[in-house]
Amino acid sequence: MNIWRLVTQAGVHERMPLHLQDRLRFANRLGLVVAVTGVFLIGVYLYLGRNSMQALIGMTVFGALVPFFNQIGAHMVVRILLSFAPALTVTIFDISLKMNAPEKLEIISYITPRYVALGSIMLPLTLFTYQERWIRNTLVGLLLVLVFNFDYLFHLTGVHFTQIRPDLVSNAYNLQWINMLIVGATLLTSTSFLIYTNRKSEQNNQRILAETLSTNLRLQESENKLKESIEAIQESKRALEHNNYISTGLAHFLQLLRREKDFDKLATSLLSQLAIYLKVQQGAFYWLSGEELELKALYALPHQKATQTHFLPTEGLIGACFQQKHILHITDITAHQTQVLSGLGEGKARELIFAPLLADEKAVGVIELATFYHFAPYQIELLAQVAEASAASLANLQFLGSVAGAGKEV
Fold first, then answer.
1. In this structure, which of 73, 168, 191, 299 has its CB flanked by the most CB atoms within 10 Å?
2. Partners of 365 in the beta sheet?
3. Can you list the alpha helix ranges (DSSP code H) found in 312-376?
């Protein structure tokens, strides 16, 4: 059973149209039937002592090789030869019999090829699709030419039908045309119905295939739109979460600025709260004191381990941030370790960020933060807003502290 299925599928692949796949399967099966029939007839004729079986042997070999030819892609030639195989085999067999043993000639040998050729019209109608109708119609025409010109082939062999038992020839010869008309009408009716149903079936298959493809495309489009909607919802959710993160953090730091009245305590609290909220590993707070930026607070680093506590406003990354008055974000400090000058020394942080403290658009300090991870855009946005809000409060506390100190001295 597996061998039969394997032979039937020879030359058939999924990229072929479905109607062509069916024709190739039928051709493979028909080839095997022709081969088995040929073997049977050869055995019968050998038993009867007949010679001149070259045509039968050729037909048998061809039938057995049909799956092989289909497998190598020659299915068009195979189907054309299969359409002619029975008619040509019987015709050649009878002609060889007439040429080699005319004494064995019978009226049935003269009539049989006509019926076989007429019946073979069904083969091209079955083996070829509606899209291949020009080949199908040509083969049908050639088979009809063989049917109606069989007398001429007989004359070429030198044997005329009048040599076949004259007492039977006249009636048999006339009777064969009547029978052929009946068979022809029957074949014409049945094949017309077969062509019609075959065409309708192929049209329905094409329609179903087109509808399936259209449905798949619509489903794909719907799936893509659904994915886009989900992504848009997720993006909106992330944006809302980030906005909540910024607004909640800003409210927390504004409350801290209103609550704390001491400059040094506010600087320390502000730095530590920023480090915790932004989830950074180290931090430093610098304030302009005279002509230098002085280290006022550290986070997660002892004061004595700070590599430098005073910076000129033009010195290092801190000075660059101070001069440029905008956030400076260093994303790959490991690649530029020898070029980086900051107050946190040679740590193994992945990123550094410097935020300027601006009071009335004048730089008064810098906040430096280091992380082992990555600063997200919304974290940088929060840092910028907190630095902007805290600069004025810190400057005001420093001014009040200096006024209070001056009053005590007086």
1. 299
2. 287, 357
3. 316-324
